[in-house]
Write a structure and sequence with these properties.
Structural class: alpha+beta
Largest sheet: 6 strands, antiparallel
Number of helices: 22
CATH superfamily of the largest domain: Histidine kinase-like ATPase, C-terminal domain
Distance between the termini: 122 Å
Strand content: 15-25%
CATH class of the largest domain: Alpha Beta
Amino acid sequence: MDRMNGVDSLAMRTAPWTIPLLTIGIFVLDLLAPVGMAVSILYLVPLLLTYPSPQTKAPLYFAAVATLFIWTDVLLKPAGLPIPYALFNRTLGMMVIWVIAIGLIRYKQTQHELQSALVEQAHAEGLMREAHEARYHADMDTVRAVVGREAAEEQLLISRLRLEAIIESAMDAIIAVDEDQRVLLFNRAAEQMFGCSVRDATGQPLDRFLPTRFREAHRHHMQAFRQAGVTSRKMGKLGTVMGLRSNGEEFPIEAAISHIAVERKTYYTVILRDITERKQAEEAHRESQRQLATLVGNLPGYVYRCHNDRDRTLQYISEGVFELTGYRVDEYLTQKTIMRGEKTHPEDSEHMWQEVQTALEQHHPFEMTYRILTKSGEVKWVWERGEGIYASDGTVSYLEGFVTDITERKRAELLLRKSEERYRRLIAVSPYAILVNRRDSIIFANDQAIKLFGAVKADEILEKSPLDLFYPDYHDAVRERIHELLEGSPLLPVIEEQIVRVDGTSIDVEVSAARFVDEEGPAILVMLQDISERKRLQEQLRKTERIAELGTLASGMAHEIGTPMNVILGRAEYLLDRVTEEPVRKGLQTIITQVERITRVMNQLLAFARRKSPERVPVALKDIVEDSLELFRERLGKSRVTVERLFKDDCPKVLADPDQMSQVIINLVMNALHAMSDGGTLRIGLRPEKQMVKLTVADTGHGIPRVVIKKVFDPFFTTKEFGQGTGLGLTVIKGIIEEHHGSIAVESEEGKGTVFTILLPVASAG
């Protein structure tokens, strides 16, 4: 409304010169414009500007002037003008102008009528207020008059007071009593405060609502108040008074009192306020302040409030500053002999200042650790946390925070770091693989553990379950040991288990475990040691012992059995040459075959047990292979076995015993033939590989089961049917190859065949 009035005021000031100028300008423009342009519509602008004019009919006057100008423009147009079109155009423009002019006048009249109504309403409200005031004064006069009347008129006054809405709606208790302190008026708030109805309270002495111990003092006080010459005392001037509820409960109240004398009778009005909640709040505040003071006083440090300057000029500092720094509170605040900023360690001062300012710029709390210099010159470490208190314009008014001594913690941290570093070095150089398991997850692995599991980095082991690291056959044992440790067993004995490496292979290890507890809870320390080499040596020792026993047995058997077998063989051959009966000849031939078999077994036993040292000379393995295959030429044809020779022409000689190499190749070829009873392909390869010669003998036979392939080189182990093999052939081959400083390996897949790979060192050029 004010904005509208301002716009109207501006329009009224500018209209005397704006309207004529606009009207003349539009007249000239219409005179120069072609007939087809409705320039006359622009007269609406100055027409609207006439609205603020104090003259109600100003829009009609302007409409008449605009009509005159429009027709003048039509008359002054050049000859040849299409008059009908111009008349229509201008007539339409004039009609619009007159309609808007009449509308403005009617709207203006409506606004004037509305303003007049508002003025009349305001005038009426003023008259009503005056009437109310007059009525109020009349009522007050009536009250004063009624007080001076006899008892009947007094009852009428009380009734009128009781009906007064202001009394009944008051938040405070209002009680009116006569000069005998008998209750005349008891409002609703008083009923709620004292738990007493107005019926029960009326006519009762006022001190009924006071504890007994205060009643006598109350009567003396009322008498003194009447004689004091004052008519009222404000709330709180009487101090705190205790009230008494109907249920016997005492509670604190504040009272205001006034009295009036009517015809030598005195009437008192008491206004009471229950301040129980306020008292409780004050008590809670005092208790809070007390607790805060106690807390601040017992803090291992001090609380402060200071300005945001480099001196950190203090507004407040707690007593704990003395114990921390050796300086008293008054030295900082009263005497100002020392500034807080001065006692920050010079090496930490700038860093601390920058950290605080950065936090304040972001409106974040600041938290920092730094050193201070005490009064005795001691250097202490402190931890400080604080924040800025900002003014309404965003500037920092002051800083508040807390500072505590962490010197001992820093020393403990230093000792802990030294201890951790010491133990870290011990763990790093430990020959054992060390793991730490917490909540079924590996959280630490040292370098030896990483190496043991065949990992490149610790991440390949960390976060895994311990069960993922052990062979499945040992999972139940691992779970049981973890359970025992977590249930309280501090240490478990060493046992042998198998772990699974990253590449899927397994190795034998010795495992010991112990339980420990740190700040994060219980955990298990696991120590592992690779015993695969020890197991291999133990197994080799057992084999050596078996071989030694076998050699002793074979020597005895060869001596005890060899001579009788030779006699039997000789007699059987003698008889075979002299008999002609076919059944007898077949029986003798069977005897000869079996004796020869026994003799071969005995010879293999002797070769195995008493193998002579090889007489190594440079030999070409290609020649030995060809000579060995020549021995099997007829049998290879009968067995439908095709031989593929995969020889490299540049294959060098090896340093070997020719007879023993022949024994190796013959044994491997014979095993291949046994595996290909239904025919197949025998592939023999020779090629150089670094400083070695690689010999491969591969067949396409039935293959060796995976569960037994590791045992093929064990003495007396065979996959052939009973009576078809001794189980010593591959054992003898392995021994020969190892005595030549070479190696032999086997790969097989059931149904696809077997490959034996032999590596022998190249003979030196000298």
